[in-house]
Every structure is written in structure tokens, then in C-alpha cells.
Amino acid sequence: MYVAVKGGERAIDNAHAWLAEERRGDTSVAELSLVQIREQLALAVNRVMAEGSLFDPDLAALAIKQSRGDLIEAIFLIRAYRTTLPRFGYTLPVDTGAMACDRRISATFKDAPGGQVLGPTFDYTHRLLDFKLAAEGEAAEAPTSAPRTEPTPHITEFLQGEDIIEREPMSEAQPGDLTREPMAFPADRSVRLQSLTRGDEGFILGMAYSTQRGYARNHAFVGELRIGTVAVEMEIPELGFAIKIGEVELTECETVNQFKGSKTVPPQFTRGYGLVFGQSERKSIAMALVDRALRWKELGEDNLGAAAQDEEFVLSHSDNIQATGFLEHIKLPHYVDFQSELELVRKLRREAAEAVEQMAAKEAAE
Amino acid sequence: MNTTISAKDRKAWMGLLASADDARLAELWRAFDHEPAFDWLRAPEAGGVMVRGRMGGSGAPFNLGEMTVTRCALSLADGTVGHGYVQGRSKAKAETAAKIDALMQTDAAETLRARVLIPLQEERAAAKEARASKAAATKVDFFTMVRGED
Amino acid sequence: MNQMTDNAVYAGGFSNPPVASAHAFRAAMNAMARPGMVQEITGATPPEGISLAAGSLLLTLCDPETGVFLAPDVDSDALRGWLTFHTGAPIVAAEEADFALGGWDALMPLDRFPIGTAEYPDRSTTLIVEVAGFDAPNATLSGPGIKDTAQIALPDPAACAGNAMLYPLGVDFFFTSGTQVAALPRSTQIRAEA
Predict the structure, then answer these.
(1) Adjacent-strand bridge partners of A224
(2) Which residue of chain A has the CA closest to C64?
(3) Which of B138, B141, B143 to mutate to test the interface with A (most CBs of A within 10 A)?
(4) Does the beta-carbon distance from B42 to C7 stay under 8 Å?
(5) Which among A86, A237, A238 has the least Cβ separation from residue C63?
(6) What is the maximum span of chain C, computed from C-alpha positions, in angstroms?
(7) Subunits that touch chain B (at least 3 Cβ pairs < 8 angstroms)?
(8) What is the pLDDT of residues B84-98, one digit of tens each?
(9) A162 shares a domain with A45
(10) pLDDT tens digits, one per residue of B93-127
């Protein structure tokens, strides 16, 4: 029997009204504007764009404001919004080799052409709270130097010359799209990458860390990490040619992994790949490590039974909107389900008690 | 109407308009002060496109995530068709871009180029250069310290 | 393409897309829900040779992710350009079609269109068949969405009955003429009239 229980409307309306008031907080404190969030909480905006799977900084800022800074709630809002957008089409693959880099480092080659460009990084900060930021103050202009004009080639291109690293076969194969077709296993690498790039940063980080701690260790070096903007081009059918339709900020990580070879492949370096919207460095490194771990089958490696090698485990649990939806739904009314459980447990207890009584009576009779 | 528009030229101005700053484009367009009569062929609509990357930066394509795009199409009184495809959700920006695309195919092209496109292009180049200069200042200059005897 | 045909490609879309496409969608939905019942459907002005009803269905149902097959009797540069601009739908072969448009004879053979799979019966073609009219019923329909029976004019009742035998697989049909549409989903049972 299904029993609908009504009567929550007034309570829900009032809860929403209070939520709106709490969101605003103390009205004697100035309200946050969306541009303030977009400009000053840019890395939160980037995370919402990456996991919301929609590049639009203004929308991400709005979602963060509406969700009171709960980023998973903000990602949920973006995911819901993006389903309402008509899909105009697919872009040409972006050319990350032509990226205008804000940051570009390599942990493997000190003297890579293009150099080691640190960019606006936290890396060498002391992680001491800066109380100067508590007092409002203008930031000083960053120093400048003569800009580089030539392109910055990918580091893996140098290794490819020696054939000492696996080649990434160029193709125009149609990639899978998990926003259009449900995930099926075994999943193609294109679908794995799409799933990882929108996956929860904390989950991907944990999976990547597990490989470093020895669960399917794959000896990764960051061959290259670059952050910057790339042009996005799309074929416009009514024009008959491709035009640039905008620019996106991306973080790209290529790992170079030790590989002792297999029956068919000589010892060489293999590759893991991470590409994420916005400046999302931790996420892109983690993505590259997990991508590499998931490639064990195609590289002829052993299944070590590690969680990070199990694509069904990784891909089915990386989406924080699916996860939080299922997790949080158990707090919503389950009165009827629980009523039947209650009756079942009472019945079992009654039967158990009767069995004990019968046993006692039997023993007494003997 | 000018029929010698090359696809390369048109690509260049449409690309510039696509990622132009909304407010700056609106300002330059207002200053140009020429509102052509037109009919909508497709009223402005906001949508998404799926952005693709390549595995390892150079391999097979995969779907990275979407971005917002607004598009429209219009025709001027003389039948010239203009298309607007711009990043973001601004219908006004798409409309302005489509009008400029149409007018760039007419006799107004040279004035429009001088008063709207070139300023946009120069400001954009300056902003890119400013960013690249800051990045250049964070480039590491390695030097080797000689240690030990001789 | 010269300027005239170039511009013709851009004309004839829904004048108020949110409202017009909602009306057309409702007509298409009612047609599928009430097999054999004729509905009015308008809004689009497709290139010459295509009924308003078929044009309105295309604008309502197609997008960049639905492949459309154009049978030789309707295929033209004008129609391709019009469909591309207004829907973004790619033109594909019959074997890959989500939608197919044409007269019955030009669309045949029926068995070249996808009929779905056991796991995904929806991965099948919906045929939009241009017909002369709905005035001469030659088949009796029964099944879901039909109170007792309904009458319809079918180009080939036996072929349609064969398709129904494939249920839950099979293709679905819209029949269009002028501003009218009727539908025949695979779930409908067909009896040819003597």
C-alpha cells in the first residue's frame, strides 16, 4: 500500500524563506556580488564549472552564491541548468599545444623549450595565514618581463622522437558522450576521460593517491602541467566553415609513467592524461594518474585488484551529484518503508520469543 | 553588396566578436551609431556546445564539457545575411555580432572595421600581452652552482 | 548557391519558436497517442514539395543529434539547407536514420531502417511519410490509445502489419498531408479491410 502524506507545504515554504534570509546573513554586512565571486573566488568558480561540466564563470558564481558556498550544491544547480540548454553541436577538439600559458612546468625536463613558467601558484608559499588580507588592501601589480611570442610545444613531443614513450594515435573517431548515452562497461577511454574530468575532485584525488601509496602503483612523473586559455572552434553548417566561438581556460596534465614492457611492447614510458576546465591543478594531476591506472588492460598489465584499476568502481562512484542524490535521499520521508520494516522486526521478535517459550516448555515437560 | 568577402576574413571578425567583452562591444557599437533595419531569420537563443579535447593533447577526441553559446541570424533590408555566434548567454551581444557580420559584407565595412573591430582587436592583443608579460616574469632562470674542489 | 536560394534556406522557421514548437509537439504527441486520429499541425513553411505538416514535424522533432534520411523524391539542396539551418540535424543514410522523410515508395524497402535492439527498442527510425490524404481508409486499427477501433488510409497495410509483429521492436510512422498528421506506432494492430 502506498500512502501519500500531505501537509508539509507551509513548513517547506517557510523553510525556503528562512534559507533565503540566512543566505543573505547579517544585512549590516555588504552583499556579495556575482562579479566579486567570479573574480575573487575564481578557483571555487573553476571547480563548479569543471564538475558542473559547463564553462560559464558568471553562472558558476551565481550557483555559488545561491548555494551559500556549498560547492556540491552549486555543481548540482549547474548540472540542472545545463540540461535545459539546447545542444548546438560539438566543437573541434581544442589545440592545447597552442595554449596561451599562464603556467607551464615540467618535473622531468629542466630545460624544456618554453621554460619553466611558474604562473600564479600557491606552490612556494609558506602556508602561513596572511593577516594582511584580513585588513582590506590593494594588491601590488605583478612584475612583468618581455613576453614569449613563439608557441610552447608539448614536452611529450621530444620523447616521441626517440620512441621511448608510447605514441598517442591521432584519430577522428567519434567519442562516446555520457550526457547522451548511459555509461556501459567496459568503457571506452573517451568516456572514462569525460567521466573523470567532471568527477568529484576529492574522489579522484583519493583514487590517485591510492595508486601512489601502492595500490596499482604506476610510477608517475608530471611530464608537463600547463594552465592557460585556448580558442574553441566549431563548424557552423550554415556557413560551411569553422569559426572561433570563444575561449576557455584549461589545466592540462600529462604524466610520464614507467612501464617495464609486456609481451608485445618493449619497455618504454606510458602516458596518463588530465584535462580540466579552469585552473584546476590538483584535479588534472589526479585525473592523469587515475586515467593511467585504468589503462592497465590495453597496456597488457596485470590486474592487481586495486580499486583504481576497477573502472566500474571508479566511474560509478566518481560523480558527486549521483552520489549525493542517492546518499541524501535517505533523509527524506520513508515512513511507509520503515513501517513495514518495523512490522517485520516485531514479527521476527515475536516468533523468536515464542520459539524460546516453546523450547522452555519442552524442556520443562521432559 | 560586397561579394568578395573571403571566408578567412569573415572567420577572423566572427571569432573576434565571439569572445569580445559584452560591455566593450556594446559601447563601441553604440559609438558607431548606425542601427540597420533588419528581420530576424533566427531570434537570439542561448544554448550549449560540447567542447572536445584530445587524449594526450594530440590523440583521439573526447568530450570535455559544455560551454554556453548564444546565436542568432538576421537579414538586412538588402538581403545581406548576418550570423552571430558568441560565447556566453547575452542575446544583445549575439544581436550586435550578427549586425556587424552583416554590415561587414556591405559598403559600411571599412568604417566598421576601423571603429569597432580594430579597437577590439588591439585591446584584446594588449590584454593578452599583459598576461603573457606577467607569466614571463615567473619563468625560472636556472643557474648551476659549482660545488666541491676543482 | 546564389543569394536568393541562400536566403530561402533561412526562411520558413517557426515565427515564435517556443510557442509554435510546443503546439506542434502537442499535435505530434496526440497523433502518436491516438493512432489513426488526424491532427492539425502547422507553423513551419518548408521548401516547396514538402507539406507544412512534415516541415512542422521536422522542426519540432529534429536537432543536431538526430540523423535524418531524405528519400530521393524529397531530397534537394533547398531542403537540406533549410533543415540544417533550422534544426542542425545531419543528413544520414537510411540505415542510420532517427527520422526519415519521403513518399512511401521512395522510402522503401522498409527493412533497411533501424528497428531498435532488445535493450534499447527506442533506437529505431520514425518515418514521416508524405501521403495524398486521409480520405480513403483501407485499414482498421486497434490497440493502445484506441477505444474500440479506428480507420486509417495506409500506403501498404501488409507492410505496416508486418512491422507491428516486430513489437517491442519496429519503426513508427507519421503520415502527413497538407496541414494534417496521423500516426501509427508499432504497438497498433492492423487489419486490412476487404
Answers:
(1) A254
(2) A89
(3) B138
(4) no
(5) A86
(6) 54
(7) A, C
(8) 999 999 999 999 999
(9) no
(10) 999 999 999 999 999 999 999 999 999 999 999 99
Residue A336 backbone dihedrals phi, psi, to 5 degrees: -70, -45
A189 is a domain residue: yes
Give the domain extent around A160: 96-119+151-167+181-320
Say yes or no for a CB contact (<8 Å) between C6 and B81: yes
Measured between beta carbons, which residues in chain C are less than 8 angstroms from residue A177? Answer: none
Residues C16, C17, C19: CA angle, nearest 5 degrees: 75
Beta strand pairing call for A220-236 and A100-105 = antiparallel
Residues of chain C with pLDDT under 50: 1-5
Q: Where are the domains of chain C?
A: 16-192
What total number of domains does chain A contain? 2
Pick the CATH number of C16-192 from 3.40.50.300, 3.40.50.11310, 2.70.40.10, 3.30.460.40: 3.40.50.11310
Is pLDDT above 90 for B141?
Answer: no
Task: Give the pLDDT score at A5.
Answer: 66
Residue A143 lies in a domain: no
Q: What is the pLDDT of residue C76?
A: 94
What pLDDT does C4 receive?
40
pLDDT value for A232:
98
Residues A59 and A161 in one domain: no
Same domain, A27 and A102: no
- Nearest neighbour of C7 by CB, restricted to B43, B45, B75: B75
- On whether residue A71 sits in a domain, the answer given is yes
- Residue ranges in chain A modelled with pLDDT below 70: 1-5
Rg (CA), chain C: 16
CB contact under 8 A, B41 and C10: yes
Does residue A159 sit in the same domain as residue A191?
yes
Under 8 Å between Cβ of A22 and A67: no
Task: Note whether A204 and A318 are within 8 A (CB).
Answer: yes
C-alpha cell of A147? 613576453
Interface contact flag, C10 B43, Cβ < 8 Å: no
pTM higher than the cut 0.80: yes
Q: Which residues of B touch C13 (CB under 8 A)?
A: 41-42
Q: Answer whether A91 sits within 8 Å of B50, measured CB to CB.
A: yes
